[in-house]
């Protein structure tokens, strides 16, 4: 069950956007594994964040770290090409954000990125079975998408367990990421439920010492 090493993905939603490049380098230097890039459109979710231009600027400034782009936009398809061009490594979409999920996942993979499928707290995981051959990452939301700093929804652990069962049954190399309210106090239970990749926004960027915050998360994971 735990064949993949645990990965920590700071969400730049809680970073200081006035100096985003430095904030990205700072968490990577502090021991993070990849960067979680939250894109919100004030339509699919009630908040507005950053788009492909910002990712492109980070790439142009020389940042080569893995960019895990979480698209909370509807309709999602038109933006996928822009994010591929901007340098996304992983692009994750919500099934509710597209009329034709199969086509959307294909377009991400054909563009050379890894494809992620995201489940909100009230979205059943069943659709994963239909498209699992097109998926490289499953993202379980442990808050309702839209804002950083929300409280962890404990029931989402059941969905992590369900996704873990489907992934293991598929035999495919699929990461299982959890996103929302992750802290040292709940990351152990998320790992026990089967998650191997952990998004943390406020728990890392809200701390004074990013390296200490990441060490604390890893220490909690070591107990899983
Ligand atoms: C929520 C975003 C998350 C969130 C994580 O819509 O997808 O990535 O910002 O932030 P924390 O860890 O503060 O809940
Ligand atoms: Zn996210």
Helix-strand layout with pairing:
Blueprint: E1 7-10, H1 20-29, E2 35-40, H2 52-60, E3 67-72, H3 77-86, E4 90-93, H4 101-110, E5 114-119, H5 127-131, E6 137-141, H6 156-170, E7 175-179, H7 187-193, E8 197-200, H8 202-205, H9 210-222
Parallel strand pairs: 1-8, 2-3, 3-4, 4-5, 5-6, 6-7, 7-8
Helix pairs in contact: 2-3
This protein binds D-xylitol-5-phosphate (DX5) and zinc ion (ZN).
CATH class: Alpha Beta
The largest sheet, given as strand count, sense and whether it forms a barrel, is: 8 strands, parallel
In CATH, the homologous superfamily goes by the name: Aldolase class I
Spans with pLDDT under 50 lasting ≥5 residues? none
Summed up, the domain count is 1
What Rg is obtained from the alpha carbons, in whole angstroms? Answer: 16 Å
CATH topology: the name is TIM Barrel
What is the end-to-end distance?
Answer: 12 Å
From the spread of the alpha carbons, the general shape counts as globular
Question: How much helicity do the residues have?
Answer: 25-40%
Features:
224 residues; 37% helix; alpha/beta; binds zinc ion; eight-stranded parallel β-sheet; binds D-xylitol-5-phosphate; 18% strand; 9 helices; 8 strands
What would your notes on this structure say?
This protein has helices at residues 20-29, 52-60, 77-86, 101-110, 127-131, 156-170, 187-193, 202-205, 210-222; strands spanning 7-10, 35-40, 67-72, 90-93, 114-119, 137-141, 175-179, 197-200. The protein is globular, with a radius of gyration of 16 Å. The protein is of the alpha/beta class. An 8-stranded parallel sheet has the order 1-8-7-6-5-4-3-2. The chain has 9 helices and 8 strands. Helix 2 packs parallel to helix 3 (77-86). 37% of the residues lie in helices and 18% in strands. The protein has one domain (7-221): Aldolase class I (TIM Barrel, Alpha-Beta Barrel). Residues 11, 13-14, 36, 38, 70, 143, 145-146, 148-150, 179-182, 199-203 line the site of D-xylitol-5-phosphate.
